[in-house]
Amino acid sequence: MRLKILLPFRVFADKTGVARIVAESRAGSFGLLPHRLDCVASLTPGILVYETEDEGQVYTAIDEGVLIKTGLEVRVSVRNAIVGSDLRHLQSAVRDEFLALDEQQQSVRWTMAKLESNIVHRLTELHRE
């Protein structure tokens, strides 16, 4: 298989000869082999594992994104990625960088929803007058 990991502004990895891929979605981990049916999956922050004959197993911490498998081509589009050989370091990077960002985004979204609600409420009051 050919694996491309895409970030918003660059290609993070472009690997050929990938024998297998393991990724994480909201439903849990799943694996891809070369002749699996085509699919699309929403990825959660976690560890993406792929294996090549030259490099062996490669661990990559990824942020949330999407995986698309078409034939022997697999494309993973994520906001951020970190490659490394120390699995503990990568797991802590996922926890500290990617999941913390999600909490910050949730806080921003909650604040925006509250502001929007207040605006709608005030517009309704103005309309009544």
Task: Give short descriptive properties of this protein.
single chain; alpha+beta; ATP Synthase, domain 1; five-stranded mixed β-sheet; five-stranded antiparallel β-sheet; 10 strands; elongated
Detailed description of the structure:
With 129 residues, the chain is of the alpha+beta class. The protein has 1 helix and 10 strands. The protein has one domain (2-127): F0F1 ATP synthase delta/epsilon subunit, N-terminal (ATP Synthase, domain 1), CATH 2.60.15. A 5-stranded mixed beta sheet has the order 2-1-9-8-5, with no helix packed on it. Strands 4-3-6-7-10 form a 5-stranded antiparallel beta sheet, covered by helices on one side. The N and C termini lie far apart (65 Å).
Class from helix and strand fractions: alpha+beta
Cα(first) to Cα(last) distance is: 65 Å
Q: What is the CATH superfamily classification?
A: F0F1 ATP synthase delta/epsilon subunit, N-terminal
Average pLDDT, all residues: 84
The count of DSSP E runs of length 2 or more, i.e. the number of strands, is: 10
Weakly predicted, low-confidence segments: none
Lateral arrangement of strands in the main beta sheet: 2-1-9-8-5
Total number of distinct structural domains: 1
Subcellular location: Endomembrane system
Family: Belongs to the ATPase epsilon chain family.
Keywords: ATP synthesis, CF(1), Ion transport, Membrane, Transport
Protein name: F0F1 ATP synthase subunit epsilon
